[in-house]
Amino acid sequence: MATLAPPAAAQSAPASAGAATDKAIDPLDVSRAELYAEDRWQEPFRRLRAEAPVYYCEDSAFGPYWSVSTYKPIVHVEALPEIYSSQPTITIADPIEGEPRMPMFIAMDRPKHTEQRRTVSPAFTPSEIGRMAIDVRRRTEEILDTLPIGQTFDWVDKVSIELTTQMLAILFDFPWEDRRKLTFWSDWAGDIELVHNEDTRQQRLMHMFECAAYFRKLWDEKKGKPMTPDLISMMLHSDAMSEMDDMEFLGNLILLIVGGNDTTRNSMSAAVYGLNLFPDERTKLETNPGLIPNAVQEIIRWQTPLAHMRRTATQDTELEGQKIRAGDKLALWYISGNRDESVFPDPDRLIVDRENARRHLAFGYGIHRCVGARLAELQISILLEEMAKRRMRVHVEGEPSRVKACFVHGYRQMPVQIETY
């Protein structure tokens, strides 16, 4: 296999953030936001997988980094958290010097990661998922029954955002009338491109502090009261998270909001877009609703709502024959691992009865695997089930507007019309 590794001098370049230089754009720099906004990320990743599964990008808007683009090395890195740390951050964007840090348990290593993750895990146990299923179904039914037949509307806003925002409000015991604030904060928190512009960076900080102040009020209201089955109360009543300072509190809120909002909502949009793109697969699902559980896994694989996670090497090591140095930044491209031809034949197709769809990496792997994965699967499953009950077929009326970023892989708007079959 050919490699595209840089010479030793380039490999030893510091892994610090910085703007791209005046050099020609590296066609294999897959951190470029326009690749995702224009939905043309597939080809550079295809080339990386074929020629350089572990590739050093010397020059990007986020500084130098290693791209890990195939399934096996992604799993290898995820399985070795002592060598490949989740600190200081989980995205390719480095922390900005002088900006307040917002620690979150997904960007922590053991043992603190384990302690804080254990605090929120009870919200996502099988019994809790079962308890929430009744409410998820009721709310899904209500939303689907209000959708216009034969009229164009925005699926992202009317369905995907509304369903996931309602779920977040319930998880946080958040004031119902203000629930769209969660969507607003999630959009600002998850957009790593904002760091490139000082004005938008400051706006982002302002909105994050607004988020923290709002949640601090909810926190204070629950102090001294019995524990309730919501995330704020669980944190408040735990040894691991009850004494968090303001910035760690904010960091974990951002993690739970983005994790619960952007991921599920973009998979719900992908379900409509993908089934419209592959009508033979839609027919397969319509004629056999028993395929829905597997189709959910395939939709999540095909979309991969978080394109990457970042790890930082704690020591000199080797990965797929490439010398990784302590401090080097690695981007684990889940979006590419989920299109690895050696694992998923014909990977660019959405195949609702794909035999190994559940092997996808969209939830991560190892100790940092998404704590809310079962809830996300539940919400998408119920959406497809209720659409099937109504014999609801959704036609995409034009190309969707997509998120312009290499972290959240999603949709801003998607015009659709509904018909029944």
From TrEMBL:
PANTHER family from the UniProt entry: CYTOCHROME P450 YJIB-RELATED, P450, PUTATIVE (EUROFUNG)-RELATED
Gene3D superfamilies, per database record: Cytochrome P450 (1.10.630.10)
Organism for this UniProt entry: Sphingomonas changnyeongensis
Pfam families (alphabetical): p450
GO molecular function, one term: heme binding
Record's compositionally biased regions (Low complexity): 1-20
Presence of keyword Nucleotide-binding: no
Family the UniProt entry places it in: Belongs to the cytochrome P450 family.
Keywords: Heme, Iron, Metal-binding, Monooxygenase, Oxidoreductase
Protein name: Cytochrome P450
Disordered: region residues: 1-21
InterPro entries registered for this protein in UniProt: Cyt_P450, Cyt_P450_B, Cyt_P450_CS, Cyt_P450_sf
